[in-house]
Amino acid sequence: MSTLDQDIERRIAREVAAWQERVTSRGEPLQIDEGWLHTPEALRTPFAVLKSAGIPPAEVELFQQRSRLRERLEACVEDSERLTLQRELSGLEQALAFRLEALQRLGTG
């Protein structure tokens, strides 16, 4: 083996060791909370990756929309608007139920 190959191998080994030192010294222990325990095992890692990237699952936005619709419905005084909001809330709750059921199947499948 030439000295150039040996120099390259040593340099790669030093860089890998430095990278490993940076990675292992910054890790934090996994926080196990109630949400983690209720998440299907097959979905825990993908959701953890999304969470660490600051991207909430789409279902979170649906829950927030549902909450806002419920607040608007409680504050509504007109019957026609109330009926429209009830229909919208019903459709949103159905879509949310389908998504949660699909996630449950995906997590157990």
Summarize the structure.
With 109 residues, the protein is mainly α.
Give an overview of the whole structure.
This is DUF1992 domain-containing protein. It comes from Stutzerimonas tarimensis. The structure is a single chain. The chain is an all-alpha fold and 109 residues long. It has one domain. Helices cover 81% and strands 0% of the residues. The chain is built from five helices and no strands. The mean pLDDT is 84.
Cα-based radius of gyration, to the nearest Å: 25 Å
Q: From the helix content, strand content and strand pairing, which structural class follows?
A: mainly alpha
Q: How many helices in DSSP terms?
A: 5
Which percent bin holds the helix content?
over 70%
Question: Any idea what the shape is?
Answer: elongated
Show unreliable segments. none
Number of DSSP strands?
Answer: 0
The average pLDDT is: 84
- Measure the end-to-end span: 51 Å
| Largest sheet report | none
How many domains? The number is 1
Give the SSE order as H and E letters: HHHHH
Name the beta content range: under 5%
Question: Can you tag this structure with a few keywords?
Answer:
elongated; DUF1992 domain-containing protein; 109 residues; mainly alpha; 81% helix; 0% strand; 5 helices
